[in-house]
Structure formats: structure tokens, C-alpha cells
Amino acid sequence: LGHAVLQARDAVMRDGCGRILILLGDALVFGCDASSEMIAVSKRNADCSVIGFERVPMEKVSRYGIARPKREIVNDTTFILDDLVEKPSLENAPSNLAVAGRYLLSTEIFDFLDGQQAGVGGEIQLTDAIRRMIGVKEVAGYVYPGTRQDIGNPDGYFKALEVFYGYR
Fold first, then answer.
1. Which residues on adjacent β-strands are paired with residue 133?
2. Which of 126, 103, 102, 104 is nearest to 30 (CA)?
3. How far apart are CA 4 and CA 1, in angstroms?
4. 84 in helix, strand or coil?
5. Number of other CB atoms surrounding residue 2 within 10 Å
6. Residue 66 and residue 155: Cα distance in Å, rounded?
7. Tens digit of pLDDT for each residue in 63-97?
8. The pTM is what?
9. 101-113 burial by CB neighbour count: b if 16+ within 10 A, else e?
10. Mean pLDDT for the chain overall
11. What is the pLDDT of residues 122-141, one digit of tens each?
12. Do residues 105 and 49 touch, judged by C-beta distance below 8 A?
């Protein structure tokens, strides 16, 4: 994912954007406008970067990037990130807040990606670059109220059809 995002740098920077919205194509969100809500969170917090999260059952944390919140900034839906832990064991999971396919990042992410060493699978990982950015700048997490369906697997795909079209 990091390498793919890095490929957009010239187009994004040419347009003079200060932020980039990344929406993963295999993550459909129902029941809210997560992107607009994340933009509002950013504006209320000095235009910081914002990552979308969902709460998952603890037994599923090993499937996701999991947030280690530093502190809440609005009830239990918006927080400042201390770190992201990629696919932790149940025992090592700092929370049940899973990255949910939505990112609103400062274009400074390109600088972090540009210098990023290859990570898991020998690829440039977006999560690794975000972790480096967290060390320098505040990054917020936002637990959006909608439901995410992962259509990258058959069960999630059919669940999305059920939710969206009422198919069973």
C-alpha cells in the first residue's frame, strides 16, 4: 500500500493539496460518511492527519493494524495515536481499535514513504511510514459509526451484498 500511495505523489503535489484521502477499495463503509467525518475531525484538530478505525472483537485483533491511543480528545470516538501495532497477538494488543480502510493524511506522508525501508513482504508499508510520522506529528484516530465490510474475501463480499441490496 505504501508503494501505491507513493506513486500518487507527483499528481497530488502538482495540485497543491495539503492532504490526501486514501480509501481502500476492498473496504466498503455503510451507515455514515466516514470521509467527511474524518475531514471534520482534522479541521477541529489543527488539520492533523486522521486514520479511520472500527472496534473489533479482541479475538480478531491479530488480523489488523491496531491502535495504541495516547489520549482521547473527544469521548471515546476520537483520540491521538501513540502507535500502530501491525497484527498483534491477543496478549500484545494495545486495544481493539482496528484500522478500517480510511486514511486522511498530510502530504508529508510522501516524505516518510520516500525514505521508508521495505517491511513485511519486502514492500513499502504505509503503516510503517505512518508510525514514523506519529513520532514527529500528532495523528488522530477516529472510530466512525458506520459498518465496514471487507469485500476482499467471499464472506465479506456476500455480507456487503446482504447489507446493501438485502440479498441473502
1. none
2. 102
3. 5
4. strand
5. 21
6. 22
7. 889 999 998 777 779 999 999 998 899 999 999 99
8. 0.88
9. bbbbbbbebbebb
10. 89
11. 888 899 999 999 999 999 99
12. yes
Residue 160, all three cell numbers = 456487503
- Find all residues with CB under 8 Å of 74, minimum gap 6, and list them: none
Phi and psi based region of residue 31 (left: phi greater than 0; alpha: psi -120 to 50; beta: remaining): left
Catalogue the E-assigned strands of the chain: 19-23, 27-30, 49-55, 65-74, 78-86, 97-106, 139-143, 147-150
Whose CA is closest to 127, among 101, 156, 159? Answer: 101
List phi, psi (to 5°) of 60: -105, 0
Q: Which of 36, 69, 70, 35 lies closest to 55 in space, CA to CA?
A: 69
Beta bridge partner(s), residue 142:
52, 78
Q: 49 near 139, Cβ under 8 Å? A: yes
Residue predicted with more confidence, 68 or 119: 68
pLDDT recorded at residue 168: 61
DSSP state of 92: G
Bigger pLDDT: 31 vs 9: 9
Q: What is the structure's pLDDT at 36?
A: 95
Whole-number pLDDT of residue 153 = 76
Cell of 9: 505523489
3-state secondary structure of 82: strand
Q: What is the enclosing helix (H) or strand (E) of 55? A: strand 49-55
